[in-house]
Amino acid sequence: MNRDGTRGGGRTLAAVDPAPAEAGSRAALRQWFHGEHGVAPIVVGLALVWVVLAAIEPDFLSAENLVNLTLQSVPVGVIALGVVLVLLVGQIDLSVGSVSGLAAAIVAVGTVTAGWPFAVGVLVALACGLAVGLVYGVLSTRLGLPSFVITLAGLLFFAGVQLRVLGPLGSINLPFESWFVRAIQQGFLEPGVAWALVAVWILAYLGMQVWVRERRRRADLSCVPWSQIALRTGALALVLAAAVGYLSTARGVGYSVVLFVVLVIVADVALRRTRWGRSVRAVGSDRRAALLSGVAVHRTVISCFMACSTLAALGGILAAGRLGAANQGTGGADTYLTAIAAAVIGGTSLFGGRGSAWSALLGVLVIQSVANGLTLLDLDQATRFMVTGAVLLGAIIVDMLVRRRRQEA
Amino acid sequence: MREPTEPGPTPLRATAAPAGPGGASPRASSASAEPGSTLPRVSSAPVVSLRGVSKRFGGVRALVDVDVDVHEHEVLAVVGDNGAGKSTLAGVLAGAHRPDSGQVLVDGVPVVLDSPAAARALGIATVFQELALVNDLDVVENLFLGHEVGSGVFLDEVEMERRAWQVLDQLAASVPSVRDPVRTLSGGQRQVIAVARALLGSPRVVVLDEPTASLGVRQTAEVLNLITRLRARGHAVVLISHQAGDLQAVADRILVLRLGRVHGAYTGETSYEDLLAAMTGAVRPGSGTPMKADQARGSGTGR
Ligand SMILES: Nc1ncnc2c1ncn2[C@@H]1O[C@H](COP(=O)(O)OP(=O)(O)OP(=O)(O)O)[C@@H](O)[C@H]1O
Ligand SMILES: [Mg+2]
């Protein structure tokens, strides 16, 4: 059935075919927890945060509050997704906050002051993000400057540009009745549409796994046991159904939330299933080896910087839409720290090569849950910073312990 | 896995990646479609030549005015002391080092090997001394890194894994799982992976920098056997090695490097003692008088 049967080559296939029927689901569970892309520790961490917050303040788990939580998470989450990409390729971008603020300012000034249509404003802002990333990428690859310094300069520079663009007023309100603001603030999926999307997602996920298994079986390679496929699909279905079902008892799933999740899925597929994604991981974990293997290192690094700045710009645009305004504080202060912390809490390594697109979503949920919970408890900004810092440290320690155990196992 | 009809040398073509979109250059792919398999073994024009190549690293002259010809159907061994410049020579062929002066010619046409990808596209594949594997990627990912198999933008993992098993079987590699990160493999296993990676895609010229240094007896034999098969199929092989056994088994011509300079070309039969003398510049060996490369090649390919 698998290769084990066809060759007596003295090869141990234990690890290739980890689960002979009886231990199937247990092995699947263990693999899920310890696997290379293991997001399980952070899921457990998120559950823990929720349990603690719900114990102190039961309102935290109310559907309305969770809807708020999802909406709050989107702008920083989109920025964190970009940060994941630069971290994966072994670089960093400290300027994501400034770039997002600049993008928000461009949209506001362009549409309100200059009277552009919103679509144009959004496209111009995104194009600016793209250009910023291109500059970073070229400076980093051609001149070999460390990205930490380039983007630190960018942080200051673009914060200045943002102020200049906003002008003396320092704050510009977006018209509330515009489709752009309405879609972000009040746009929610019809429950029927939400359920349809969930069904499509689950079927696609299941179909993909069955298709791959069938191809592997025909190529006589080891196959994952059916139990594992069932378990994975079941778990996904459970999570999605619970989320959509519960959120729908309040306002539901916001358009911007859908956009964020779609971006995460696209990034995840691109990272795991395309040449580009493979290059990103290779360059991030060993740049020289990747170069010697024929990977286009420069192009890969530049593309990650561009994706990161563009996503940062998009995050700023979404933040402006959510707030209904762009001001000097948009994307300022702790935005970039929160975004980087979210990526790291979600399990993406600061040292390149390891991580997943999902870490942006999970990490930002953890951080925003803490922020949201502490706000409900009427605790101030000071407590929020301290608790978030502690969570970040805790997440890194847990991640390290899990990783160490995995390497010993 | 479909069982091959005979357990002996599996045809290398079986593992050859088709020239994918954006893969090998037209010339390289058309030439490697049947690499000289119909040609009789007579001296032909060199596939790759270096002309007057020099390379410095700061004050160190790693290569000085080096001329080398690499022919199809031939195993060119390169020997020399530590620091003689062998790996630098391999690096120039691999596109990892740009020579300071001199020319690289492929099929007599001057080319610029400014990146490993460019060298690979011209049909030159290299096993680096430091292997250049990415530790966090698994075996299959490493084998196909830089020239993945896929349709459109998406990777075809199933096909890559199938070919990975094929090429690893040829090398009698005992790898626990092709889905383990190479970080978890032993030094010898990693070396086999690096050799296997160079063989995928049927390159015209294979440069091996000490490929057997940490291999066991059986894997060494498989690699040497494979080198012989590569030669028989018309590939050119550049073998850098310290192992006397390797040289005796497969070398057609032996190039001695000393302090970055070519110190003579010898036939494959030259005794190791004579080579040692040439490498260290100690005694001028009586029996191993340096021959003109053409003469050496003529007698070498007759084996
Ligand atoms: N990247 C580099 N930077 C600086 N010097 C280098 C570099 N690579 C090689 N050298 C120098 O060039 C010379 C030739 O090195 P090379 O690696 O080609 O030797 P080698 O013949 O492969 O030796 P070995 O048998 O130890 O592998 C050495 O003196 C080395 O110090
Ligand atoms: Mg060397």
TrEMBL record, chain A:
Pfam families, sorted: BPD_transp_2
Signal peptide: none
Bilayer topology term: Multi-pass membrane protein
Membrane-spanning residues: 39-57, 69-89, 94-112, 118-139, 148-167, 187-208, 229-247, 253-271, 291-321, 333-351, 358-377, 383-402
InterPro entries: ABC_transp_permease
Key words of the record: Cell inner membrane, Cell membrane, Membrane, Sugar transport, Transmembrane, Transmembrane helix, Transport
Protein name listed in UniProt: Xylose transport system permease protein XylH
Natural source organism: Myceligenerans pegani
Automatic annotation (TrEMBL), chain B:
A UniProt-annotated Pfam family: ABC_tran
Statement: the UniProt record of this protein carries the keyword Nucleotide-binding: yes
Domain ABC transporter per the UniProt entry, residue ranges: 48-284
Biased composition (Pro residues): 1-10
Compositional bias segments (type: Low complexity): 11-37
UniProt KW keywords: ATP-binding, Nucleotide-binding
Positions of the UniProt region annotated as Disordered: 1-44
GO molecular function, one term: ATP binding
Name this polypeptide is given: Sugar ABC transporter ATP-binding protein
